[in-house]
Amino acid sequence: MQDYQIYQQQVVTVSRLLTEKGLLMGTGGNVSARLPGQAAMAVTPSNFDYLQMGPEDVCVVGWEGGNELQTLAGLHKPSIESPMHAAIYQARQDAAVVVHTHQPFASACALVGQDIPALFDEQVRFLGRSVEVVPYAPSGTGFLKGNIVRKLRSMSNAYLLQNHGALLLAPDAERAIFNVELLEKCAQAFLLALYTEARIARIPLPIREIIMSKLRHDQRHAAAQLVSE
């Protein structure tokens, strides 16, 4: 039997830290970690309290030979959003950790239905040119998975799920936590700026593209590492 514990523990660590920071709540949202070099991931179980979760509770699922998921390890049923996570890993070779949250300010932006433009250098450097809204579809459905996969072509690391929450991609667990926090900062600032009804300043396009090129370099590096491991 393969040793999945390092990836199961990674999911536990990210889930607990984000819960303690108030960015994951109750049993809402889900977290996964890619198993490098394999068509598999560790993912949070369905409807399970993050603060009560141990590595043995985290599910390991694979998709070798097709899109149908197979449970490889874990004591519980995988998250209903597991197919969405698997589709993200198949579409984005640079992603090692995926987090879906219902964090307050980003969720509020998802209700407003407007992309968060390039507000800050740090945002573009780690999240992408903008934080786009993924059109609404019911949780756990192929419709939502398809909507997300189409948006992933932008190569951003953060998306708003309309009337639902937020989705973050990262090359490792530490960056995943950072990206969730950064998105919440940007979402809060954007909502406050909208409230003023004043013109919202954006990072100039040439600067935005220079910063984005650094993110793309990091993504290529992360993809190469994940393939080689």
Write the layout of secondary structure elements.
Blueprint: H1 5-20, E1 30-34, E2 40-43, E3 59-62, E4 70-73, H2 82-91, E5 97-101, H3 104-112, H4 121-126, E6 132-134, H5 142-151, E7 158-161, E8 165-170, H6 173-196, H7 205-228
Parallel strand pairs: 6-7
Antiparallel strand pairs: 1-2, 1-5, 2-3, 3-4, 5-8, 7-8
Helix pairs in contact: 1-6, 2-5, 3-6
Describe the structure concisely.
With 229 residues, the protein is of the alpha+beta class. The chain is 43% helix and 15% strand.
Description of the structure:
Helix content is 43%, strand content 15%. With 229 residues, the protein is α+β, with helices and mostly antiparallel strands. A hairpin with a 3-residue loop joins strand 7 (158-161) and strand 8. Helix 1 (5-20) runs parallel beside helix 6 and helix 2 (82-91) packs parallel to helix 5. The two termini are 19 Å apart. The model has no long low-confidence stretch (mean pLDDT 95).
